[in-house]
Amino acid sequence: MIGSNLLRAASIATIASLAFGTTAANAQSLVINDEETMITQAPAAAHLENLDEVFSGWLFRTSETQTLQMDDFDNPGMIFVDQAIDQWDVVEGAAGKSCASCHEGGPAEFAGLRTVLPRWDEEAGGIQSMEDYINKCRTERMEADAWKWSASTMTAMTALIGLESRGMPVDVAIDGPASGAWELGKEIYYQRVGQLDMACANCHEDNYDTMIRADHLSQGQTNGFPAYRLKNAKLNSIHGRFKGCMKNIRATPFAEGSDEFRALELYVASRGNGLSVEGTSVRN
Amino acid sequence: MASGVKPRVKVPKTAAAGDVIIIKTLISHKMESGQRKDSDGNNIPQSIINTFSCDFNGQNVITVELHGAISTNPYFQFKATVPESGDFVFTWNDDDGSVYTTTKSIVVG
Amino acid sequence: MDYTRRDALILGAGAATAVFMPIQAFASASDDAIAAFTGGAATSDAGIELTAPEIAENGNTVPVAVSAPGAVSIILIATGNPNPDVCTFNFGQFSGSQSGSTRIRLAGTQEVVAVAKMADGSYAQTSSVVKVTIGGCGG
Question: Which of A96, A200, A209, C78 has the fewest CB atoms within 10 Å around its CB?
């Protein structure tokens, strides 16, 4: 049962109640625009040996930060979604096409896509993230330049497409052809690295719901990505966040868009199976 | 014009005469505070939105003078009285001389 | 080397002195900013309300709201910032209430001050202390 560490944390930050068993100043239930209810707490997937329940990072934030995500207008990440809506119709590349040229149904064609990514892709012969699919469209269909993995245009577009799956539970496949990459991701998750000799699991599995200095450690779920972080006031990609974590533990990060990070993205996403896609979330 | 500046405003579409309505505005802008240094240690000059205003049918609702302590992607929420149908005009003035405007209509019936 | 208790005390004393000076400087810059707004007039502590979090999760984006019924303008001052000026709300003819909300940057734990100029020429002032936390990885 979690919550044992919260009394000492409660003096520093206002903490959630039901899930974490203490005072109730911040919200427990994430309802966006008064109408869309997110699943922020779910039974852990069968493959998770060390957790009983999984929690959205939203539950770990202060009430002020939580509030920012409860209304699409108050959510600063949505200005980037607006930018992506404009970008959708921008013709680029030698083929003279925009996103809209092929995807006549608009971003709504991609409802549900966020929930199953990253996934095994037979044609690519590996795990593909949403960024891969966007760049494939750009380079092969539009004959335009690929975007950098965490370019502002890219995070905005992944936010727009991800929004079509908002509320739907994450449901990435880990078996079949994906299993090799999933195992690699799991290995990376538990592998201690860097000068601080820490693994993902040390913070996000062993010590979530405790304070690391003034930060309330979450389970490191990816269901809210791309996430608007107060820290840098922009949308952050999953791989970008992985990179930041690795730098924090004084490790040499894998490259964004590397097979290692794709594998880790798959594994971490699978740890959040059952939680709602929240993108575009607001985090610290 | 600073790149990627995108205004968003939220105004109810309808109201009764004399209603007090809530307006929210957000604009994507870096709001470079003038307090930061670049990688060579040189000060990055201030580059912010210095004024925001909202007018209704030519009369002022609110004017805000901004300084470097306003967060990136400036957000404002305030209230307006609407005596009649008309247009809200929102204006942001950038230090670089750019002016961003957007308009929202409201029907009073 | 290992720090001894004595070393720590000496270091602490030095740090305290180093921090003390700029705080004084900021306070005076804030006083100047307030005086520039009020023209040095006395302020009442009634009729103005400032809502700010007791603890801000991140100093980059701190939501604040201010309200002063009957005000023509309200100034916000962050006393602990290098430049204490935050913003000034000026209310026009179609203002629905003399209130406003925004998101501000705070350089550290500090007092945020709001001063309202009332329609009758009087001034009201209030303040709120916001603790700004220094994060581990997230901050």
Answer: A96
